[in-house]
Amino acid sequence: MCRHQAAKYQAENQTFGRAAQSAQRGFSLIEMMAIVVIMGILAMVAIPSSMSRIIKEQITAALPLADIAKAPIATAWSLSQEMLPDNAAADLPSSNKVVSNFITDTKIENGAIHMTFGNKAHPKIKDKILSLRPAVIEESKVVPVAWVCGNAKAPDNMTVKGENKTNIPDEYLPRLCR
């Protein structure tokens, strides 16, 4: 009886062992397809968010170029309460000479600074414009000029000068420019 039970036990273990071995051989086609679908979905979600981040970084990296125009505009306002009409009045080179890795043109128009993206800029923002406009308190020239980036709102009690020509979609603008 003991031998009979031992033989039965051994036969059951061999059957179970074969089943376990065949289950461990690899992925079935369905399992592999599920993994491919999940990876595809993750890639579709990751690529646009990565693109948006890259564009925002390029816009942020381009902003310091406007600093060379901000100083003469602020000085003109504090001295005469007037906005500079163009690059020449700010003693800056022509707009196509004020460039950087991501900017092909920096133009002053009635105090506003308009930066056109190009060169190494992402194709989604190539030939798009970001405006930086001065915000002032008209009755007081001692209050420093604040700068309004893109579609952002002006600080309370301040008047924004110049036209906003920003045509970059808000989804690509850094927070300070929305």
Automatic annotation (TrEMBL):
Gene3D superfamilies in alphabetical order: Glycoprotein, Type 4 Pilin (3.30.700.10)
Keywords linked to the UniProt accession: Fimbrium, Membrane, Methylation, Transmembrane, Transmembrane helix
Any one annotated GO CC term: pilus
PROSITE patterns attached to this UniProt entry: PROKAR_NTER_METHYL
Membrane-crossing residue ranges in chain numbering: 26-47
Pfam families xrefs: N_methyl, Pilin
UniProt family annotation: Belongs to the N-Me-Phe pilin family.
Protein name, entry field: Prepilin-type cleavage/methylation domain-containing protein
Species of provenance: Methylotenera oryzisoli
